[in-house]
Specification:
225 residues; mainly alpha; disordered C terminus
């Protein structure tokens, strides 16, 4: 596998560099994925723009939360897995973006559990929320890659990220500034920054698996199906 040959390490600089190379190699695929996510996110953007001026604010908020959980979470999990496949240099078809809907219950419940834990952490003076977010950063990959149920995915992410929390936090901080830089140059810059940072986070997950010796390469469609 090429990630082994590249000596991918779970370091901020390493995964950002690998993410950048991955983005250049699979640019059109990744561009289409983030473009679809952006289009799917338009209803949430409209709801945010409505603000307090809308008389049906409560209904809109409920609709927004439902749309986020039942539509956007599966799409984001599917996208995370496609970025991971790019990092691993394995092929995929764009239709696989919707594969999370075949594992719908686990994906939705994982998103709900993840969101609840982060929300509780933020309620507890913000810092615990940041810690929880870093330690649970691998949940989407574990649900899609390992097919774990929500509770096991949370537990496994907590185990895998032990000792890597500060690195994940550092990657998050750098990613924030990359996205801000992308916003400065408007539409194309935002898409490129999202592609880069999503590839970097997928690379961090892969790098941790490699360093721990827990990655087992499985051939795509071994039975020719």
């Amino acid at each position: 596998m090429e990630t082994n040959a590249q000596k991918l390490e779970p370091l901020v600089g390493s995964v950002l560099g690998y993410g950048w190379e991955t983005m250049k190699k699979y640019f059109l695929r990744m561009f289409l994925v983030v473009l679809i996510l952006g289009i799917a996110n338009i209803p949430l953007s409209i709801l945010d723009a409505a603000g307090d001026s809308d008389a049906s604010l409560v209904f809109l908020q409920i609709f927004g939360l439902a749309y986020l959980l039942f539509v956007m979470v599966p799409l984001r999990y599917g996208a995370a897995y496609l970025f991971l496949k790019n990092v691993r240099n394995t092929g995929f078809e764009i239709r696989e973006l919707f594969d999370a809907f075949y594992n719908y219950m686990n994906v939705v419940l994982a998103g709900l559990l993840y969101g609840a834990i982060i929300g509780i952490g933020i309620f507890l003076l913000v810092i615990p929320g940041i810690i929880f977010a870093c330690r649970l950063a691998f949940v989407p990959y574990l649900v899609m890659d390992k097919k774990l149920d929500p509770v096991k995915a949370v537990e496994e992410s907590w185990r895998l990220t032990k000792g890597y929390g500060w690195r994940i936090f550092g990657l998050g901080v750098v990613s924030f500034f990359i996205i801000i830089a992308g916003l400065i140059v408007m539409f194309v810059g935002v898409l490129v920054s999202l592609m880069w940072t999503k590839a970097a986070f997928a690379a961090m997950y892969q790098a941790v698996l490699l360093e721990r010796g827990e990655y087992v390469e499985v051939p795509e469609n071994p039975n020719g199906d």
